[in-house]
Amino acid sequence: MKHTQTLTAVTVLATGVLLSFIDYFMPSQGEIAASVLDYLTHTMMFSGSILGVKTYVDYRLPKQ
């Protein structure tokens, strides 16, 4: 269960970064669309909240 949170956060963040790179390097555009930036922002917020909650819980709960 502990690794599921980290794996989910890293996977979602990687999709956001990958989508940004793909959109930027497309030959017809050369810029990142607003919808891709919005998706990247949401993935960063989601990953940060997942990893932040995981870190807080790991810090507060005693190891068993």
Summary tags:
2 helices; mainly alpha; 64 residues; single chain
Summarize, please.
Helices cover 78% and strands 0% of the residues.
Folded structure, characterized:
The structure is a single chain. The chain is mainly alpha-helical and 64 residues long. It has one domain. The chain is built from two helices and no strands. The longest helix has 27 residues, at 34-60. The chain is elongated. The two termini are 15 Å apart.
- Integer count of domains: 1
Count of alpha and pi helical runs: 2
Q: Mean pLDDT, nearest integer? A: 80
Principal-axes geometry comes out as elongated
Strand percentage: under 5%
What portion of residues is helical? over 70%
How far is the N terminus from the C terminus? 15 Å
- Structural class determined from secondary elements: mainly alpha
If you compute it from the alpha carbons, what radius of gyration comes out, rounded to the nearest whole angstrom?
Answer: 15 Å
Low-pLDDT sequence parts? none
| Strand and helix order | HH
> How would you sum up the major sheet?
none
* Structure summary, number of beta strands: 0
Which helices and strands, and how do they pair?
Elements: H1 2-24, H2 34-60
Helix pairs in contact: 1-2
